[in-house]
Specification:
Layout lengths: L1 H19 L12 E6 L5 H17 L2 E6 L4 H13 L4 E5 L3 H13 L4 E4 L12 E4 L2 H20 L5 E6 L5 H16 L9 E5 L7 H14 L6 E5 L2 H13 L6 E6 L3 H8 L5 E5 L6 H13 L7 E3 L4 E3 L3 H7 L4
Parallel strand pairs: 1-2, 1-3, 3-4, 4-5, 5-11, 6-7, 6-8, 8-9, 9-10
Antiparallel strand pairs: 10-12
């Protein structure tokens, strides 16, 4: 955490120097320029969101500048600064890093440029908040918990030994509600589960947390050979894939039920392996993000002052909903 804070401070100084010594390109008065700083297109969800942003920008007649950080902290602020120099009127950031995102709010605010954070709440050191678009994290968690509860009732007669919730502290407290919401959803479905039997497992490394989740789940299963009713919730599909791989490698599929937030090609690949612990996930519809975010940018720039929090609707998709999962991921 200290390393991230030091890097952030240094980059802010570099970015301020670069901006102060360069000349911002001026666009036509009637042209809207949106800067989109993506995390990594190697992650299916982020790639699909990026594609939807480009499509929606074209449909709405606005210019979209695109950059990619590959989740490298050192690239986030310079990417933004480069887009500001090119005349970006608003910045949309999808690096899912709450601390660096908070720094963006103040930095861009100094230039009179608003910020939208995708799926993570960005709060600046001064207390100013970016606009937020993405999951209704609490509701998404509850939907996932309900999906887990259905399987717990059917497979384990409503009984459970442990609930493991894989989350990522880098995403901030708002995203953690995806996991605490799962606990709420399970209890709301009438399943008895004390807090003592709920364990949060922190997986760091941006959104691409597959390897870390695999290692941590492998270690956990090795340490608990006598538990046979283990429900698992994952913050996203990359994390879920790591959990799933660990379950298969340790031959514990019959002991685990897994639900994820969002669905991806990894979900479909697990389904293709036959009946197993991966139940499905909450739909986030990344292919629709641009249809919400680009109009939100336009409203903000037109001075309409929309609500600071904008969210998607959610539903739990299973093996019975493969066509919907494909549609969610832009597949035919």
């Amino acid at each position: 955490m200290k390393k991230v804070m030091v890097i952030t401070a240094v980059l802010l100084l570099m970015a301020n120097f670069a901006f102060g010594n360069g000349q911002q390109e001026s666009a036509g008065d009637d042209e809207i320029i949106i800067g989109f700083n993506n995390g990594s297109t190697t992650v299916d969800f982020l790639r699909i969101v990026g594609e939807s942003m480009e499509r929606a920008a074209k449909e709405n007649g606005v210019k979209l500048l695109v950059a990619e950080s590959n989740f490298e902290v050192e690239k986030i602020l310079p990417n933004v600064d480069n887009m500001l120099v090119q005349g970006a009127d608003i910045i949309v950031d999808f690096n899912v890093n709450a601390e660096v995102g908070g720094s963006l709010v103040d930095y861009c605010g100094q230039q009179g440029v608003p910020v939208i954070g995708i799926d993570v709440e960005y709060v600046s050191p001064s207390g100013e908040k970016a606009w937020f678009f993405g999951a209704d994290n609490q509701r998404a968690g509850e939907v996932a918990g309900t999906g887990l509860a259905v399987a717990i009732n059917e497979d384990w007669n409503g009984e459970i030994d442990k609930l493991l919730l894989f989350w990522n502290s880098e995403n901030g407290p708002l995203v953690k509600k995806r996991l605490s919401g799962m606990y709420d959803g399970i209890r709301n479905a009438g399943i008895s589960l004390s807090e003592d039997n709920v364990e949060y497992i922190n997986v760091t490394g941006g959104s691409d947390t597959t390897l870390a989740a695999n290692n941590k789940m492998t270690d956990w299963l090795t340490a608990h050979p006598d538990l046979h009713r283990i429900a698992v919730g994952a913050v996203n599909c990359e994390t879920g894939h790591g959990v799933f791989s660990a379950v298969q490698t340790t031959d514990r599929d019959g002991d685990v039920l897994l639900a994820t937030n969002n669905n991806s090609g990894q979900t479909l690949a697990a389904f293709e392996q036959g009946q197993n612990c991966w139940l499905g996930g909450v739909a986030y519809y990344p292919n629709r993000y641009g249809d919400y975010i680009i109009p939100l940018c336009i409203k903000i720039l037109n001075g309409e002052n929309p609500s600071k929090i904008q969210t998607m609707e959610h539903e739990f998709l299973t093996r019975d909903d493969v066509d919907k999962i494909k549609q969610e991921n832009g597949m035919k």
